[in-house]
Amino acid sequence: MDFKLEIASAIAAAANLDKNEVYLNIETPPDKKMGDYAFPCFRLAKTLRKAPPLIAQEISSKIEKPDFISEIKVQSAYLNFFTDKSVFAEKVISKVIAEKENYGRSTEGNGKTVVIDYSSPNIAKPFHVGHLRSTVIGNSLYKIYEFMGYKCVGINHLGDWGTQFGKLISAYKRWGSKEAVEKDGISELMRIYVKFHEEAEKEPSLNDEARAWFKKMQDGDKEALSLWKWFHDMSMKEFNRIYDVLGVKFDAFTGESFYNDKMAAVVDELKEKKLLKKSNGAEIVDLEEADMPPCLIIRSDGGTLYATRDIAAAFYRKKTYNFDKCLYVTAVDQNLHFAQWFKVIEKMGYPWSKDLVHVPFGLVSLPDGKLSTRRGKVVLMEELLKEAVNKTRNIIEDKNPELPDKEKVARQVGIGAVIFDDLYNGRIKDVVFSWDKMLNFEGETGPYVQYTNARACSILRKAENINFENIDYTSLTDGASVDVCRLLDIFSDKVCDAASKYEPSIVSRYLVDLSQAFNKFYHDNPILSAEKEVCKARLAVVKSVSTVIKAGLSLLGIQAPEQM
Ligand code: ARG
Prior knowledge:
The protein is α/β, with parallel strands linked by helices. Among the domains are: 81 residues, Arginyl tRNA synthetase N-terminal domain (Gyrase A, domain 2, 2-Layer Sandwich); 215 residues, HUPs (Rossmann fold). The chain has 22 helices and 13 strands. The model has no long low-confidence stretch (mean pLDDT 94). The chain binds arginine. The site of arginine has 9 residues, from strand 9.
């Protein structure tokens, strides 16, 4: 049973209102003095032409009290509903126990498709901590939307096309060797790429050479393409290693190069619709009326651009997946880029341009300034993940050397710590990378949440012959138990909220709250030593918390070891 819905029906009937409308306005007050659910009457003042407190009074005198509600209080403009604690506990706990890992799922997205473009690093460059955010935020949104019934398509729009590959080929021909690249992979490519930029400062004609190589790539030249493909495959090998460790998957790796033969059609259509304009030899779409600089479609040397490929990709995705929404998870510094080309699609007359959503996130920097691949100022992802696992391994050796499957747990917890730390930040907040913070396992962290679940699992292991039938819920009316039930009750609301705001931190913060509430419950209430019926009811709480923590962590892309 959905309490909120029941309350909404009762209010709607008493006041002759639309049930769904009422439902959307019901709040769960953070201060329990205000009840478990509250209905504010401010909005009704206008239509009913009465003061909000009076409206609250009138509804309360007419409302039929649902049986799980012990009291309805009018407090100024609010109707506050207090649930009968044991009925409330029963409704929540029995639902979690019955639905197991499906508790919290919804059907809201059934029949709808969301395409999510995330991670999307540029190839031939090292995968560093700057790439972590897009990767884990996108992966989490994927899982959150899937949990809500949407069909999700995860796309890695690799940056694998553009003049930088002309530069790389030219650098390789001048200063590279097969042996060195085979030996050192991306870091060798990076070395010659940096050298290219240094040399081109002195000898600008190198840039023409690079452009010529890129032109060859576009025209299908064998040598250019086979070098490019070699760099591509090598990068993918390194990236896939990291995705494996992170447990991140994609449904398609259709990068920028995939659109090489799909851009001409876009350009033709723009021409046909008279949206292209010449400007200093380049072709642009003017966006002055939208107060934006023009969107560059074709460079003066005939080359296409990042935006041209994004436009072609959007058409391809619409045709291939017929999405209801297409999300782009990239840093906030690409705001203008997305705003511009979304506008171009709108100007082309496609109403689905409104379904394209840029999901920006704050920038990652190092304590001494911006990350910079070219200047070698980066923290490599592989190094970070290795460090996190090493540190966890050491803690396990120190605190729990007998733990079975130590290596596996070290990976689950170490990687979990890194992902959780990233997802605990509000998406839009800039972050300064810090080894200490990333690898801190105390307080509001992934390991803390994982540990709470492991503790719950350990209690369940110790309990004998648990069965969750005919539970007496009257022992779950103390403050700590009620707090846990209240949190369990709002899990699916939190998930929906995270989806509509594209904000996985709503889930991570919720999990910390739930863990804290559970730890208080565990501290206040003896479980295994309690009288039989009480023990059974409390074990049901333990089981429910473990179920929801596991589900919540999985929405963040984090594992939940049963022992640690
Ligand atoms: N490769 C780009 C970068 O590293 C991100 C691509 C994001 N996706 C997109 N469709 N533009 O900044």
